[in-house]
Specification:
By secondary structure, the protein is an alpha/beta fold. The protein has helices at about 10-25, 55-60, 65, 105-110, 185-190, 190-195, 240-250, 255-265, 295-300, 305-325, 330-350, 350-355, 365-370, and strands spanning about 5-10, 30, 45, 75-80, 85-90, 100, 120, 125-130, 135-140, 145-150, 150-155, 170-180, 200-205, 210-215, 220-225, 270-275, 290. A hairpin with a 2-residue loop joins strand 13 (about 200-205) and strand 14 (about 210-215).
Length: about 375
Amino acid sequence: MTTSVTVIGAGLGGLVLARVLHVQGIPVTVYEAEPSPDARAQGGLLDIHPWNGQPALEAAGLSEEFRGLVLPGRESYRVLDREGTVWLDHPDEGTGDRPEVQRGDLRRLLLDSLPAGTVRWGHKVIEVRALGEGRHEVVFADGTAVAASLLVGADGAWSRVRPLLSGATPEYAGVSTVETFLLDGDTRHPAAAKLVGGGSLIALAPGRGILAHRESGGTLHVYGQFLKPEGWLAGIDFADPAAAAVRVVEEFRGWAPELTALITEGDTPLAPRPIYTLPGEHRWDRVPGVTLLGDAAHLAPPNGEGANVAMYDGAELGRAIAAHPGDPETALAEYEQAMFPRAAAAAAEATDFRLMFADDAPHSVIAMWTGAEQAP
């Protein structure tokens, strides 16, 4: 007898799991706290990797549809210093193997691939408790509850399911980020659009940086990043957008004005985004009837792997469950045994993220990507 699966969280990892299970004829229900698919923006561009993200979408039977979402030209990038000198300019020649797509478009593709009613919106989890014999009760904020015979926590950094398995909680990674968007860049912000180019811009100095990438429709997605103590963002009044922008730009004193304009010309208020992580070797002993995937299992700094690894987790877990119908414990043990070292290896690759803040940035990043610093 095939065990039905209860998934908490309708992010990319949880949706890939649901899709793989659906393809295999295994009943699955996904509970999501957001009230609807369009309740909030779904982040920016994702480069989908050939060693994890792309195989996950292939397992979901969506490779062709995924290719239709790819934005051409987005694999180009340029690296600058604080004075605006371009030290590395890498064009997109159409030969790259990490195509870029909008996260929101990819999520919509996955949602549309599932039968109506698979995802139950507006179900915010407030408690999960063990019922015994591998079953768990999930309690929602509206007072309803469901019993799960196989429970998967795909509910992100602050997972409500994780405490069933582990006492680990996310810790501040030492990096604080602010985020804004420049809309209709080619028309309304032509200088910024030209500076960013067709793909991504990475401007770095020791301890800080400005990152931007071109999304669909000419939108420029911009981040300011800083090595700062935890709580630094709390000292900025983000309720006053103009004052917040002035305060943030103070951190870029001496930078080329065309770079700081990426912050000051933002069409959306700066949004604070402190970075948190779980230990790189995070793991747990097998607990009957429950497991985790994605950030709930292995939250790491943003190094391009997070969404890819989450989708691969979902695909691998789905395949394991399908390979052991009626034997969920064997499926979960098999999945976790492979997932733990895979996640640890991905977390170790966060080196490029840390190098962005090194004392010799941007040359630290250039040296890693090219093997030698480039002359301007």
